[in-house]
Amino acid sequence: MTTTRRSRTLSAVGLSVAAITLAATGCSKSETTDNGGSDASQAAQSAKTPEASSGPGCALTAYGAPKVDLKNAIVGFSQSEKEANPFRIAETQSIKDEAAKVGVRKLLTTNAQSQLSKQISDIQDMLAQGAQFLIVAPLNSDGLEPALKAAADKHVPVLTIDRKINATACKDYLAFLGSDFVEQGKRAADAMIKATGGKGKVAILLGASGNNVTTDRTKGFVDQIKAKAPGLEIVAQQTGEFARDKGQQVMEQLIQSKPGITAVYAENDEMGLGALTALKGAGKKPGKDIKIVSIDGTRNAVQALANGEYNAVIESNPRFGPLAFATAQKFYGGESIPENVIISDRAYDEANAKSSIGGAY
Questions:
Q1: pLDDT digits (tens, 9 = 90+) for 161-185
Q2: Furthest-apart CA pair in the chain: how many Å?
Q3: Using an 8 Å Cβ cutoff, are 326 and 346 in contact?
Q4: Pairing of strands 200-206, 291-296
Q5: Long-range CB pairs of 253-257, under 8 A, 24+ apart, other chains included
Q6: DSSP secondary structure string, 313-344?
Q7: DSSP letter, residue 6
Q8: Going edge to edge, which strands form the sheet with 340-342?
């Protein structure tokens, strides 16, 4: 199966989905405390309108799928990673909540537990159970070809969310719905430059390998630092696998091997919070002695920011349910869907953290 990416830019058609608001669903870990008022805007996802577009996008006839009424349909959702962090918890709950709101006849949900082989079999199993539309949060950018082929053979559209796959849109899958991860990395770099004054030694806690989120968040950050703050030296890049315990372990090692570190860029909040724990354990003052910037927007990270132990958080909004089902409805309604539906993410800093905790996840 070829995995050549179609070089089509965003289509303006179908991006009129704007600011779909979803009430905060209380999906954070039990250790989280909400000390702030609600912030409804934080719960919303809205699609960016592209400045330019080419190509017709992907319509139902082009995809070769039968028309489906979602209220009489079986929809499958494949989660990639175990729900041990707030992003995955909020993402799954958002899909479930919106499916109920839309009135989907049956929602099938699976969790690959961070195993590619299981995600493939999960998708194949949902197809065997009659799934007519699939929403997939891919574990990796490559490797899902057997599952995609099984869906294509049954003419079942696959909407990918939060991670891109290296395949052909409107053939192997319908579209990608998610953030601009390079831009997230750039915004994190800008926040780091502000926090450090553009000088110091930075360690990067990389996400899991094999997916575009890690690659893009690293590229955006590194390129922006090189361009705007040559006095900010990147002295270490080690993977924390998007996990809090691993982020803590890596930070503990870096404290010993790179004692001159003055800042940490974590490619998700869980690793950043793990680094915070390690720094406090070593007698450091996170947010002051060593600056911390991360990406996600979890309530625990925003709380740490409000407490002065963090310096910035760039949001990566996991509440895909409303926009995912709105995209499906547009598709089945005959509208063309662009290859990439890019959402707008906000940012947290010391000025808005306290007032925004209630809207974090």
A1: 999 999 999 999 999 999 999 999 9
A2: 62
A3: no
A4: unpaired
A5: 254/203, 255/279, 255/282, 255/284
A6: EEE-----HHHHHHHHHHHHTT--B-SEEEBP
A7: P
A8: 106-111, 74-79, 133-136, 158-161, 175-178, 340-342
